[in-house]
TrEMBL record:
Coiled coil: none annotated. GO terms for molecular function: beta-N-acetylhexosaminidase activity. The lineage of its organism: Archaea, Methanobacteriati, Methanobacteriota, Stenosarchaea group, Methanomicrobia. It catalyses: Hydrolysis of terminal non-reducing N-acetyl-D-hexosamine residues in N-acetyl-beta-D-hexosaminides. The keyword Hydrolase applies. Residues 41-377 form the Glycoside hydrolase family 3 N-terminal domain. It comes from Methanoculleus marisnigri. This is beta-N-acetylhexosaminidase. Its EC number is 3.2.1.52. One of its GO terms (biological process) is peptidoglycan turnover. Pfam families: Glyco_hydro_3 (PF00933). It is an enzyme of class 3 (hydrolase). The keyword Hydrolase applies.
């Protein structure tokens, strides 16, 4: 458990993160460093984990509640279906139940609020569905085809309001993949992309992100470095885009990063031998650090796509995938716990990473670097009581 002195420190830090601030408060870097010094190695690693779980409610005996309270996770993600069980019984029944669940989850967090995430892109990928009592949404393809700022902003504002009003502070979207292959099973076929035109994609993504920021909701653009040309689905297994990916797929990232808009960038599990002959993007230092950070200049939080998807889970053991992704430059490791389920995944992952650090296979400086990025993002957006708050940084600071 986080000690009382740390709790008091974070209350002071986060108290300055209130509506009306337009730049990072003075001393934020020092505050992050002091917080890092107050955390154990296990708690730092825990901030890097974002996990899924089963249940419409939680209590003190729930594994996820124990993980949150012990500092073994820094965030959670909710789903409307349980893929492993083949059922619609998971976390989302109706708005009142969801609001109670998200509030309860935050209640176990203590000093450092957790990310409460959802995939609410609109259209086919929408966990808060109309059939469960939530407002209807529109697909990215529909918005991109209209190329209308007012229409896209209205849709983005509606998504952000739906997410925020139901206790979420992080929306895993928008998708900024290009519609290179309209029949791509994970992207094109589901109408998750705005357009094949990089400018249209970047514009629409910007409008959606800005509307989320206006309501204090974080976003994660995805799937870096581009999933739109894929002929297969990384949920199911190895996906090679070597022969189909082009540099043009980086353009939306370049534009949005230059504007300082992304809160997070989500990696794809696609393999591209021209970028890295050995590993898919999530596990690739040349891709995450070489391209995203060094070449495109992104210094914010990098979150992986779900590590239990087939492209990773079926080809790498947990030790290897965690070591490679951390050393590649990723900060948050998403275990959706949906395609496969492991109630104790947080405990296992923290133990594995701790052992890898102690064995010298992961530098502890990498853990501090990632945890620092996460804390800065939480300090900008989350108030002491864990509710979504207004951003306290200008876009140039992101």
């Amino acid at each position: 458990m986080l000690n009382r002195s740390l709790a008091a420190l974070l209350v002071v830090i986060l108290a300055v993160c209130i509506a009306g601030c337009t730049s990072a408060p003075p001393g934020t870097a020092d505050a992050v460093n002091r917080t890092l010094d107050s955390l154990s190695l296990e708690e730092k690693i825990g901030q890097m984990l974002l996990v899924g779980f089963r249940g419409y409610s939680v209590d003190p005996d729930s594994q996820i509640a124990r993980d949150i309270a012990a500092g073994r996770v820094g965030g959670v993600i909710l789903f409307d279906r349980d893929v492993a069980l083949g059922t619609s019984e998971r976390n989302i029944r109706d708005p009142a139940q969801v609001r109670a669940l998200t509030a309860s989850l935050q209640g176990y967090a203590g000093a450092i609020p957790i990310f409460v995430a959802v995939d609410q892109e609109g259209g086919a990928v929408c966990r808060l569905k109309e059939s469960s009592g939530f407002p209807p949404t529109v697909s990215a393809r529909s918005l991109g085809a209209q190329e209308n700022e007012t229409t896209t902003r209205e849709a983005g504002r509606a998504l952000a309001a739906m997410v925020g009003e139901n206790g979420f502070n992080l929306n895993f979207g928008p998708v900024v993949d290009l519609a290179v292959n309209p029949d791509s099973p994970a992207i094109g076929r589901l109408n998750r992309r705005f357009s094949e035109n990089a400018t249209v994609v970047a514009e629409n993504a910007r409008w959606v992100i800005e509307e989320h920021h206006n309501l204090g909701v974080m976003t994660a653009i995805k799937h870096f470095p581009g999933h739109g040309s894929a002929m297969t689905d990384t949920h199911e297994g190895f996906t090679d885009v070597t022969g189909t990916w082009t540099e043009e797929e980086l353009l939306p990232y370049r534009d949005l990063i230059a504007r300082g808009l992304p809160d997070m960038v989500m990696t794809a599990h696609v393999y591209n031998a021209n970028l890295d002959p050995d590993y898919p993007a999530t596990l690739s230092e040349p891709t995450v650090t070489g391209i995203l950070r060094d070449r495109l200049g992104y210094s914010g939080v990098v979150v992986t796509d779900a590590m239990d998807m087939g492209a990773i889970h079926d080809n790498y053991d947990l030790n290897e995938s965690l070591k490679l992704s951390i050393n590649a430059g990723c900060d948050i490791f998403l275990f959706a716990n949906n395609l496969v389920y492991d109630e104790r995944i947080a405990e296992k992952a923290v133990g594995i990473v701790k052992d890898l650090v102690e064995a010298g296979e992961i530098p502890e400086e990498r853990i501090d670097e990632s945890c620092g990025r996460i804390l800065r993002l939480k300090m900008r957006y989350l108030t002491p009581d864990g509710e979504a708050g207004m951003s306290v940084s200008s876009s140039a600071d992101r």
